[in-house]
Amino acid sequence: MQDEVDRLVVAWNKERPDLDVQPLQVLSRVSRLARHLDRARRAVFVDHELEGWEFDVLTALRRSGAPYQLSPGMLLRATLVTSGTMTNRIDRLAAAGLVERHPDPQDKRGVQVRLTEAGMTRVDAAFADLLDREHAILDSLAPAERETLAGLLRTLLIPFDSPDHP
Prior knowledge:
three-stranded antiparallel β-sheet; 10% strand
C-alpha cells in the first residue's frame, strides 16, 4: 500500500534523479503526521472551549502537582513564550476563572499562578479526550512498534532539545 509520500518520492526520483530524496521518506511523513495531530488537537480544544495556548498553560500547572501552581517565570520556561505574552495569557485565564494569582510566600514581589477547580476540571477533561484521539492515531501500531518509533523520534529530537542548540 502506498501513501502520499511514496507518490512524492516517485515523482521526485523521476524529475530529479540526481538528488537523494531519502529524507522525504521520514521527514515528509513526520510533517504530514504533525498536521493530522494538530487537527485532532484543535478539535479537542474546540470541544472543551480552549485555545492551544490555554491548554499549554493549564497542563503545565496541572502536571506540576498539588497545589498546582507555578511562578510566571516557570510557566515561561514550560511554554516557551515571552514574559509579556505570559502576562497576557495569565490575565485572560484569570478572567475566565481557570487560574488565580496568589502572593508568593518566598518573594514579597512575586506571584504564583494557581489552577482553579474550574481550570482543573476543564484541563483534565480535555487531556483525557486528547489522549483518546492520540491513541486512535497510533492504533495501527503494535505496542512494540510504538516503543521503537518513540525511541527513534527521541534520538532525532535530542539534539534540538539540548540547551546549546540555537
